[in-house]
Structure formats: C-alpha cells, structure tokens
C-alpha cells in the first residue's frame, strides 16, 4: 500500500518493495510521527489552509490511531512502505476523504526529519538520566569504600591511592559524557518541519508555530540542510562511542579486579554467570558484555559517517540507513548504563587484599625519596638510593617500612626515625595535594 503511484504503469517488484520498506524499524517513530502531524494540522488551520473542522477531524483520527497503537488494538504491520504511510493510510481509512488533506504542504522528507529529531531529543534526555543515576552510584560506592589500594601505571603497582579516588575518575568521565550529550541536544534543537521536500512551499505556512508547538528553539534556517541533516544522529553516536569507551575501561578493571590474580572485588551473583563445564567458575559476563558491545556502537558511528559522506543535497534514500544503527546504539547504551549501575552497586571491595597489594608493591618508594629530598638530597640522587633499597627489600622479601633504621642508614645517613611516619601509607595521603585522594 503506497502513498504514490499515479505516474507508474507497472507495479513495484516484490523484491524492491521489501528492499525499500522501512516499516519494520521506523515503527519505533510512531509517537513522534503522530505528534508531528498534529502540530502540522494545527498550524494549517491557524494559517487558514485547513478549516477548523478539518483540523479537528484529522486530530481526532490521529489521536484514535495513537491510543489504539498504545493499547495494542492496532498493530504496526502490513505491506506499508514506512510508518508515515501507515499512519496516513490508517487515518484515511478512519476519517475518510478529509484525511487526505493531512499531507498538504509537507513531504515525507521534512516529516521523517522532524520525527527523528524529536525522537533523538527524547532519547538523549533518557540517556542523561541514566548517566546521572550511574554517577550517583559511583559516588555512593566511593564513599562507602574509602580504602587504600594500589594505583597503577603500565598495570604495575605505582603509588598508593584510595578506591574512592580511583572509582571517582569514572565519575569525572561520565560528567563530561553528560555535557557532550547536553551540547548535542542544544545543537540539534531546531525544527525541520516546513522545509517540505527540499524547497519550502508556496502555502503561507508558519514554521515558527510548529517549531514552538513541538518544543524546538526555532525552525532551521536552510531548507536543503533541514531535510538532509543527520549530524545530530552522528553527533550522538559519537558521544555514545566516547561514553562506551569509558564504560569499557571500567568493565576491564572490574574483570581484572574480580580475577583470583587481583582478588580486589567480588561481583554479586546477580550480575555473574557460571560455566557449563567448570563447576567452580563464576564469570564477570556483565562487564564483558559491556566491553564487547562497545564495538557495535563504534560500528554504528562509522556506518553513518560513511553513509553520509557522499550524499549530494538534499534528501536521498541512503539516509534511511540512519535508523537501525541509531536505534540499536540507543538500546545498547541505555542497557549498558543500567547494567553497569546494578553491577557496581552490588560489588564488595576486599579491603585486606587491596591493602596487602599496597604493602607488597613498594608504593611508598616515591614518598621515601621525597623524605631524603626534604633532608637536603637532590631528587635524582634520592631516586637512586631508594631504588637500591627496593632491590635490597626484594631480596629480603620485606617492605621499606619493615627494615630497620640501621639497615636504612647503610644506604644514606640522612635517614632518621621519623622516616617511618613519613612513609606510612595513610600519612602520605594526609599531606599536601594528596589529601584530594581521600
Ligand atoms: N523511510 C524514509 C527514511 O527513513 C522516509 C522518507 C522517505 N522520503 C522519500 N522521499 N521517499 O528516510
């Protein structure tokens, strides 16, 4: 069933019809399509292009379609070309000839553009809500676990930090992710409705009215750009890709920490899975899936950038490819944010193990060098002296704080008893800018 056909002599090939149809996925846009149409007819009546009765009849028909879809009475299926055809043909079926007036001064090109912008805006706000909820959990887990743990560079134990400071790094990343999405919303907040096919219309319509009605800041400035701009989809996919990169890094750390090799955390049974052959196994599948699904979001970004790169102005059917990639990424991002939130709020930190790792890692070596510097030694010389002490400790299987003052004095006579207090792990965190680590 089609909205066109007058100039055709032959019916469309069945293969072509299936190839062209987007109903299977653009049905997701049913709400926005009806919302856009209602704003459009309201504007047509206000501008005297439709009568008030026509407007009321069309609006009533659209409302009944919407409520039937939402109450599962009307199913979005059949051989319609897309959601726009589905809604319009159902409207005509319900209210008769007057339904054919809905598409006055409109093209499916500005129709799909406004539908998708409305949807993208709505879903972007949903993503922000889920980012915020995850940020809250990170703060809570951090506050509850302000324990010492090794900080790493090159995945080698480097200096002492706290679990709180470590996990709060992700809070900072997610705060930037949120700003990026907010910025994308701000940029996309213009209405393309009224651009029509590509060149506007001869009717005296009011684009500012529909823009306001639909909650946009203003109508777009340029008709050709308005119908063929998909930057906002690409921009959101780009924000999502950066965010998934962050979630993937966090997942990687949770996977490492839950291994027996680290043994820093316990992921709750609720967010773990077992093995069909190895009875002892408990696997961090939630974190692995988030890490893995990052690939499909990057893939969508690349797919859309590539689809758009060679398209001449204005609308071309290539753009229909935007939806599946975008919808899939949205689902992925929303579920990953929720799963990460659940998993993170259920983890237990093994405080003794993180502390033992601190003790075994010479994580006060830098501070020991700072001690000598405070006593007058040049940092480069202090670095060498402490390096020799670390070598000595390794042979004795001891931490720096575990060897005697006499032994320390063999390396430098600047050492006094106060060194032990100076290199105490908790104390190191109480000095200078390091207090921020707490
Ligand atoms: N299904 C189309 C899309 O997603 C809708 C716009 C169709 N426009 C057209 N001139 N055929 O892009």
UniProtKB/TrEMBL annotation:
Catalytic activity: 2-(N(omega)-L-arginino)succinate = fumarate + L-arginine
Subcellular location: Cytoplasm
Main location: cytoplasm
SUPFAM superfamilies named in the record: L-aspartase-like (SSF48557)
A single GO cellular-component term on record: cytosol
EC number: 4.3.2.1
GO biological process, one term: L-arginine biosynthetic process via ornithine
Matching NCBIfam families: argH (TIGR00838)
Protein name, entry field: Argininosuccinate lyase
Species assigned in the record: Clostridium carboxidivorans P7
Gene of this entry: argH
């Amino acid at each position: 069933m089609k909205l066109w056909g007058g100039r055709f002599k032959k019916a469309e090939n069945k293969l072509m019809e299936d190839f062209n149809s987007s109903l299977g996925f653009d049905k997701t846009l049913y709400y926005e399509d009806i919302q856009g149409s209602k704003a459009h007819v309201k504007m047509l009546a206000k501008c005297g292009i439709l009568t008030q009765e026509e407007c009321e009849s069309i609006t009533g028909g659209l409302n009944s379609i919407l409520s039937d879809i939402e109450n599962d009475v009307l199913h979005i299926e059949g051989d319609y070309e897309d959601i726009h055809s589905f809604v319009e043909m159902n409207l005509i079926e319900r209210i008769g000839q007057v339904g054919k007036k809905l598409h006055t001064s409109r093209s499916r090109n500005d129709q799909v553009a406004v539908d998708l912008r409305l949807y993208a805006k709505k879903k972007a706000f949903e993503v922000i809500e889920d980012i915020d909820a995850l940020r809250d959990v990170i703060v809570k887990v951090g506050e509850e676990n302000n324990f010492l743990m090794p900080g790493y560079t090159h995945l080698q134990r480097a200096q002492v930090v706290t679990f709180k400071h470590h996990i709060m790094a992700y809070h900072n990343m997610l705060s930037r992710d949120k700003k990026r999405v907010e910025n994308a919303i701000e940029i996309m907040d213009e209405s393309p409705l009224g651009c029509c096919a590509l060149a506007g219309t001869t009717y005296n319509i009011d684009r500012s009215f529909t823009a306001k009605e639909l909650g946009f800041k203003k109508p777009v400035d340029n008709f050709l750009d308005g119908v063929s701009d998909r930057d906002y989809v690409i921009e959101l996919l780009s924000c999502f890709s950066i965010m998934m990169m962050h979630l993937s890094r966090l997942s990687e750390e949770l996977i490492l920490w839950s291994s027996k090799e680290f043994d820093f955390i316990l992921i709750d049974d609720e967010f773990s899975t077992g093995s069909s052959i190895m009875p002892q196994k408990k696997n961090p599948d939630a974190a692995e899936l988030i890490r893995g699904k990052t690939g499909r979001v990057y893939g969508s970004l690349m797919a859309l950038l590539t689809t758009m790169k060679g398209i001449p102005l204005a609308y071309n059917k290539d753009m229909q490819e935007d939806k599946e990639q975008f919808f899939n990424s949205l689902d992925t991002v929303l579920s990953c944010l929720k799963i990460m939130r659940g998993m993170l709020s259920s983890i237990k930190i093994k405080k003794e193990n993180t502390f033992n790792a601190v003790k075994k890692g010479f994580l006060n070596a830098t501070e020991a060098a700072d001690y000598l510097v405070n006593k007058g030694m040049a940092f480069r010389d202090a670095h060498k002296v402490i390096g020799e002490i670390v070598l000595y400790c390794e042979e004795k299987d001891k931490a720096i704080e575990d060897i005697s003052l006499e032994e320390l004095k063999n390396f430098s006579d600047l050492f006094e008893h106060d060194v032990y207090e100076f290199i105490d792990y908790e104390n190191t965190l109480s000095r200078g800018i390091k207090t921020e680590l707490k």
